[in-house]
Amino acid sequence: MQLTAIIERERAEYVSICPELDIASQGATIEKARDNLQEAIELFFETADSSEIATRLHDEVFVTRLEVAVG
């Protein structure tokens, strides 16, 4: 299964989010944040029952950039 990982810097660490499942993790590097998120997602699928997976899993997530006027 392929899912989305959004990773952003927050102070000295990186935060990673999977919007399809609303699961987040973190790490000292981009790679560690990604690996930790992957592990968290895999643990979720190992432990969650099918009804929780069905409730949380969003099958359509769109990531785009917006241009907004500031000031």
TrEMBL record:
Show the coiled coil region(s). none
Source organism per UniProt: Candidatus Accumulibacter phosphatis
What is the protein name stated in its UniProt record?
Type II toxin-antitoxin system HicB family antitoxin
Annotated InterPro entries: TA_system_antitoxin, TTHA1013/TTHA0281-like
